[in-house]
Design goal:
Helix content: 25-40%
Oligomer: single chain
Distance between the termini: 10 Å
Bound molecules: zinc ion
CATH superfamily of the largest domain: Medium-chain alcohol dehydrogenases, catalytic domain
CATH class of the largest domain: Alpha Beta
Mean pLDDT: 97
Number of domains: 2
Radius of gyration: 20 Å
Number of helices: 12
CATH topology of the largest domain: Quinone Oxidoreductase, Chain A, domain 1
CATH architecture of the largest domain: Alpha-Beta Complex
Largest sheet: 7 strands, mixed
């Protein structure tokens, strides 16, 4: 089969790869219906995060089960399934507490930009739908695999509740779906920091009430102006840079909640500043598996349409163009048809 490999900065190739096989009795093999490129793939694509050798890419997926190992009991061939970027047994103490992305058996998925995929701990990782979903649902179901699950965790970890004022820092796919999640959870006011007209438009569709284009101290001042001088109740940090994290901490009101779901790159926190900020901090790799059953149901019941973040769809043999378009910000997120 043809799978996606990163060779170095901006060098993406589709090349012959061995078809995945069952290697452990708890594995499943999927024939993917859709896969995509993640904002986090751009860190290594841009060379900000270096790679030691050519690396297979992709961790967001949904598809049809082809084959399962001997110890897989719940997942059956022929089912349509969605899984997270982190595998989980869904039985250990950490999983039962809702933190499946830190499962004792966790493996990070990394070969999903391809037609077939091996998923370890299939019973705990994958969630099956009752019926095969119509094709039109594929983008939104794929979104639950990571971007929506991550945006949803960001809103949940930031304690978004009915009537709250929410700030989303970051207008990438995760930030935009953080807006959608906050809206679903009943937020009254949702402020987004964004400088890109197409992203602002989508943010408004998902429920944003205010857009702030300023950054740094000016950005913080603007947020304070919009929140009676005190800051937002809930702040979702969806980028992972020093600038965005500082922006988020300074924009949270004392006693408020700040979640951080962007993989940090060079973020360093000042202890004294944190001490006097007086905020609840909670974040990390989103435990998408915790939310998957609920999110899949919201999609199938047409309550939400997170698939709108895919503004470019390409056949997988044009994967290199998919990366370029996201790198150059011509696309928010690229869906790949295997
Ligand atoms: Zn991702
Ligand atoms: Zn576990």
């Amino acid at each position: 089969m043809q799978g996606t490999m990163l060779y170095g900065p901006r060098d993406i190739r589709l090349e012959d790869r061995p078809e995945p096989k069952i290697t452990k009795p708890t594995d499943a093999i999927l024939r993917l219906s859709a896969t995509c490129i993640c904002g986090s793939d751009l860190w290594s694509y841009r060379g900000i995060q270096s790679i030691a050798q050519p690396t297979p890419m992709g961790h967001e997926y949904c598809g049809i089960v082809e084959e399962v190992g001997k110890e897989v009991n719940n997942i059956k061939p022929g089912q349509f399934v969605v899984g997270s970027f982190a595998t989980s047994d869904n039985t250990c103490v950490i999983c039962r507490d809702g933190y499946q992305s830190s499962c004792v058996q966790r493996e990070f998925m990394s070969t999903a930009q391809a037609p077939f995929l091996r998923v370890p701990s299939a019973d705990g990782t994958l969630v099956a739908t009752n019926d095969l979903p119509p094709k039109g649902f594929l983008p939104s179901l794929l979104a639950t695999s990571d971007v929506l699950g991550t945006g949803w965790f960001a809103a949940d970890a930031a304690n978004v509740k009915p009537g709250k004022t929410v700030l989303v820092v970051g207008d990438g796919a995760v930030g935009l779906l953080g807006v959608l999640s906050a809206k679903q959870m009943g937020a009254e006011r949702i402020i987004v920091m964004s400088r890109h007209p197409s992203r602002q438009k989508l943010a408004r569709k998902f429920g944003a009430t205010d857009i702030v284009t300023e950054r740094g101290d000016e950005g913080v001042a603007r947020i304070k102006e919009l929140t009676k001088g005190i800051g937002a109740d809930s702040v979702l940090e969806c980028v992972g840079t020093q600038e965005s994290m500082m922006q988020a901490i300074q924009s949270t009101r004392p006693g408020g909640y700040l979640s951080y779901v962007g993989v940090p790159h060079g973020v360093e926190l000042n202890g004294e500043q944190l001490f006097f900020a007086h905020v609840h901090l909670h974040g990390g790799p989103a435990p998408v598996r915790r939310y998957l059953p609920e999110l899949i149901q919201l999609v199938l019941n047409e309550k939400i349409n997170p698939g709108k973040v895919f503004d470019l769809t390409l056949p997988i043999d044009q994967v290199a163009e998919g990366y370029r378009a996201m790198d150059e910000r011509r696309a928010i997120k690229t869906l790949l048809r295997p």
